[in-house]
Amino acid sequence: MAGKTEAFQLISISVALCRELLWIAERLETSDGVLLLDSLEWSISQADLILYTDASATGMGIWCPSFTQALYSPIITPDPHRIFFFEALAVVSALSFAVSFNRFHRIVIFTDNSNTVHMFNSLHATPDYNHLLITAMSCLLDSNIQLRVLHIPGAENVIADAVSRKKFKFVRTKVPNVQILEFTPPKLSHGSQTI
């Protein structure tokens, strides 16, 4: 709508935007209501699960101290210009991992990428990243989970960083009994399927 000055002037809507708007409408129709204050009124110490994520030029890593598990996913076509996408995809993948247990209510995911933290806390992204937010919000709404995505300095995100770089020997020196598994990122949703 940028640049429009007439109140009733028609605007063009792309198919992608139409899918996203329909997704919101469908979710609102089936929602029993979302209490935002409930999502904000809990501290890190009240989290049921804490995860750490990172992405490098060659892979994504998730570190789950509670299960002593590290999860790795290779990036098949590395592109240094898309590192933000993979940082955000690592968070969505960590959320998908947590949801799969069907027993956690409050989840904290730490990432050392401040743009990713901002994207998940503001629920605002450029159109190319909306499918990451739609997928994450669908997970949260379907499972009634509360999520906080928080920043951790890179120097403190040692295990997730090493996992993302496939430095498994280093990870084992820090956590000898770690279980290292490979994961496939979740299929991303582009919004409503009714179009």
Question: What's the arrangement of secondary structure elements?
Answer:
Layout: H1 15-30, H2 36-40, E1 49-55, E2 59-64, E3 69-74, H3 83-99, E4 106-111, H4 114-122, H5 130-143, E5 146-151, H6 158-164, H7 168-174, E6 179-182
Parallel strand pairs: 1-4, 3-6, 4-5
Antiparallel strand pairs: 1-2, 2-3
Give structural notes:
The protein has seven helices and six strands; from the N terminus they run H-H-E-E-E-H-E-H-H-E-H-H-E. It is an alpha/beta fold and 195 residues long. It has one domain: Nucleotidyltransferase, domain 5, CATH 3.30.420. A six-stranded mixed β-sheet has the order 5-4-1-2-3-6, sandwiched between helices. A hairpin with a 3-residue loop joins strand 1 and strand 2. The longest helix is centred in the middle third of the chain and has 17 residues. The model has no long low-confidence stretch (mean pLDDT 86). InterPro entries: Hepadnavirus_pol/RT (IPR052055), RNaseH-like_sf (IPR012337), RNaseH_sf (IPR036397). GO terms for molecular function: nucleic acid binding.
